[in-house]
């Protein structure tokens, strides 16, 4: 199966290199995506531009792919399910949940000169980054790509309820499956509360398992792909 890999804020396609290498021997074709504004040099990219890139990869895939979104890009993966519900085998969400219709995509951090720069490790101290050593933190910070304002502040638009029929797996890194179920049951994650098929996978890591646990993450994704 083709597995499309979408990194969250500040990440380019190279963050998936070790996951991709581990997926290939497991019988899957890994397709890390370079998003407009996050690796192609564009500072004027929009969320629509990023979604167009994801949909182009879905349309070019061999058979029905699994789309994997990390962190904020869980919403991008969910948007792909909204726009191409008949084309997807599954959606995998790592360390995040889909934003609801009408809300900003990722309006979490300050905008400077039209972009959202990586804010440093302060906001992520605790479970998010506890498993990243100093070398890994320096590597991530050095490679971080400022995200265009037109991506972070864009309004999410969901239109096709067939998205709720796309099988979904929520990979739980800095939180547990039990916590995720509680959030869904409490109504805090409306999109997943309406999804018909949601599985949960636990991984003992912080928010960036593709960096700290790439082989284990690849195994989880391969199992999800079936």
UniProtKB/TrEMBL annotation:
Molecular functions per Gene Ontology: hydrolase activity
InterPro entries recorded: AB_hydrolase_1 (IPR000073), AB_hydrolase_fold (IPR029058)
Record keywords: Hydrolase
Signal sequence, start to end: none
Keyword Transmembrane: no
Highest taxon, organism lineage: Bacteria
Entry-linked Pfam families: Abhydrolase_6
Chain ranges of the AB hydrolase-1 domain: 3-219
Protein name: Alpha/beta hydrolase
Organism for this UniProt entry: Streptomyces apricus
